[in-house]
């Protein structure tokens, strides 16, 4: 399994496509070759999903779920999609299309409901790979996914008839356990105990919720949410990243073991997968009607335009109840896989597509702006630091000692920007990759822009937006590897600092000062002659 997953993933990566498409293909190929899945594969898949939901919770803010654009768009979209897709299924049944002829209205609505969900695994993977988890559209997409998970829990309770235990309300008391959880995380340190602590919280939350009859995945999400305000939340997320990505390969492989398709099943699934264009359109219209900017609505809608693995759970329950034939389980598994492929291919080009069709998309915008989308202009700034993480914040503070209020910061994480503002720092919220942002941001006084961003592609995208907006000052950026540095120079950035090389140089220079200081301050010592030596 590892061999085939590696070869397929590497092959797709070498031709410029996301490796997860290769993992999906590997699952179907292994099934075709007669390889039987083991229980360990399901265990890996479950671990991956649990860790992923836990890390989502670490990056989530409860206030995001309470925003009208999150809960109203989620519920409205599900209702409209069920009506439209159910009507499509009944239309296919009326003309006696294969696999549709025996489906009634109730079953059509059930299939529509199953496909109304978007894939948490696929969306989070795409957002993480593009460094957009904490952007406006990234947080909007995550909020919608969490709301969908809550609806999924309610559905499973109703469908299975398994009510939560009478002890379930006691889970609310977990809020009072936060100080204890914070203390445990503090004591974990920074070594191997940190990821182990993450596993303990994620799996412990899963088992605790499962123990009282509530969906375990929700427990992992809640425990992550409880720890999201801890100062080590970001470090904990990074320590679990490799484990989560490795285990999620098991999830993508497991989809291919659902069943072997026929050509007619593949054709049916392809038609269903193409309907995600309607899913995109519904999300976009709803988001813009809720006064979100066209770019935010467009990117969030594109990320959410896929089908969820939850659809397979609903399909399996329907097959057990005799509402669907087993062929539909295969068709939906193929449709889910194809939707992953479509989203994974389209989303990396999302920013370029938006720039090309920006004028057309902006016609759907509401003239009113939500408070969260109003651009803030830092006063008297001549230097702008984009990305206020550890590197950006250090650069900002160093420049501030020289330039005082003439240096400003910009970050796409609203909560981080807000926290820095509360400390009296000249920092504003904004997404540097947002073309609309730069149209409303005056760069005429900015002489230097520092790109303290973790991903090379992000720095390149910001540079393009700055140039397109008419910025004529200097641009500096950071890179971790030499090939990244060369790529950034080629994109038009004036100066690129190799992160590790510059850190080593700075360390050496500061350390040499110790010698000069000790030489100047130390008393003269007796020097031994050659005989003494």
Helix and strand arrangement:
Blueprint: H1 2-14, H2 19-32, H3 39-59, H4 62-65, H5 68-94, H6 105-114, H7 120-129, H8 136-160, H9 178-187, H10 193-211, H11 216-226, H12 233-256, H13 263-274, H14 276-289, H15 294-303, H16 310-321, H17 326-346, H18 350-362, E1 383-386, H19 390-403, E2 407-411, H20 414-422, E3 427-429, H21 435-439, E4 448-451, H22 456-468, E5 474-479, H23 482-490, E6 495-498, H24 499-521
Parallel strand pairs: 1-2, 1-4, 2-3, 4-5, 5-6
Structure write-up:
Strands 3-2-1-4-5-6 form a six-stranded parallel β-sheet, with helices on both faces. The chain starts with a helix and ends in a 12-residue tail after the last helix. Strand 5, helix 23 and strand 6 (495-498) form a beta-alpha-beta unit. With 533 residues, it is mostly helical. The chain is globular, with a radius of gyration of 26 Å. It has helices at residues 2-14, 19-32, 39-59, 62-65, 68-94, 105-114, 120-129, 136-160, 178-187, 193-211, 216-226, 233-256, 263-274, 276-289, 294-303, 310-321, 326-346, 350-362, 390-403, 414-422, 435-439, 456-468, 482-490, 499-521, and strands at 383-386, 407-411, 427-429, 448-451, 474-479, 495-498.
Which descriptors would you attach to this protein?
single chain, 533 residues, mainly alpha, Na+/H+ antiporter like fold, Rossmann fold, 2 domains, 6-stranded parallel sheet, 24 helices, 6 strands, 64% helix, globular, disordered C terminus
């Amino acid at each position: 399994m590892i061999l085939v997953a590696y070869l397929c993933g590497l092959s797709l990566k070498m031709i410029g496509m996301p490796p997860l498409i290769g993992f999906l293909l590997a699952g179907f190929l292994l099934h075709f070759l007669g390889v039987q899945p083991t229980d360990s594969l399901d265990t890996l898949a479950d671990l991956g999903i649990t860790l992923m939901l836990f890390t989502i919770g670490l990056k989530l803010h409860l206030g995001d779920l309470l925003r009208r654009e999150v809960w109203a768009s989620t519920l409205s979209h599900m209702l409209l999609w069920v009506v439209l897709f159910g009507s499509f299924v009944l239309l296919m049944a009326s003309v006696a299309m294969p696999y549709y002829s025996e489906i009634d209205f109730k079953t059509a609505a059930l299939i529509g409901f199953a496909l109304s969900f978007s894939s948490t695994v696929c969306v989070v993977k795409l957002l993480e790979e593009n460094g957009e988890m904490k952007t406006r559209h990234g947080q909007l997409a995550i909020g919608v996914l969490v709301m969908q998970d809550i609806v999924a829990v309610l559905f499973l309770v109703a469908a299975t008839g398994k009510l939560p235990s009478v002890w379930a309300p006691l889970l609310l008391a977990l809020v009072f356990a936060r100080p204890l959880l914070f203390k445990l995380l503090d004591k974990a340190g920074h070594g191997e105990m940190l990821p182990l602590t993450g596993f303990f919280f994620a799996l412990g939350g899963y088992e605790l919720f499962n123990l009282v009859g509530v969906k375990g995945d929700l427990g992992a999400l809640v425990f992550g949410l409880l720890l999201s305000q801890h100062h080590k939340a970001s470090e904990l997320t990074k320590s679990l990243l490799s484990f989560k990505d490795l285990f999620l390969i098991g999830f993508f492989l497991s989809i291919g073991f659902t069943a072997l398709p026929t050509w007619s099943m593949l054709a049916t699934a392809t038609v269903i997968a193409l309907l995600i264009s309607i899913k995109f359109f519904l999300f976009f219209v709803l988001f813009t009607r809720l006064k979100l900017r066209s770019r935010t609505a467009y990117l969030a809608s594109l990320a959410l335009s896929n089908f969820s693995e939850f659809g397979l759970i609903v399909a399996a329950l329907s097959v057990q109840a005799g509402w669907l034939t087993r062929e539909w389980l295969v068709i939906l598994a193929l449709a889910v896989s194809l939707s992953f492929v479509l989203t994974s291919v389209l989303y990396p080009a999302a920013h370029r597509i938006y720039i090309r069709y920006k004028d057309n998309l902006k016609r759907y915008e509401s003239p009113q702006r939500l408070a969260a989308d109003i651009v803030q202009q830092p006063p008297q700034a001549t230097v702008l630091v984009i990305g206020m993480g550890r590197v950006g914040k250090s650069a900002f503070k160093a420049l501030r000692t020289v330039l005082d209020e003439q240096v400003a910061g910009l970050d796409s994480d609203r909560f981080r920007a807000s926290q820095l503002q509360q400390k009296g720092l000249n920092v504003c919220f904004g997404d540097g990759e947002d073309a609309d942002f730069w149209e409303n941001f005056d760069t005429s006084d900015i002489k230097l822009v520092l790109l303290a961003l973790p991903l090379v592609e992000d720095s390149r995208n910001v540079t393009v937006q700055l140039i397109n907006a008419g910025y004529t000052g200097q641009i500096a950026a950071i890179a971790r590897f030499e090939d990244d540095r060369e790529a950034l120079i080629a994109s038009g950035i004036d100066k690129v600092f190799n992160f590790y090389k510059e850190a080593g140089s700075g360390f050496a220079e500061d350390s040499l000062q110790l010698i000069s200081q000790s030489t100047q301050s130390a008393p003269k010592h007796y020097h031994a002659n050659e005989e003494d030596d």
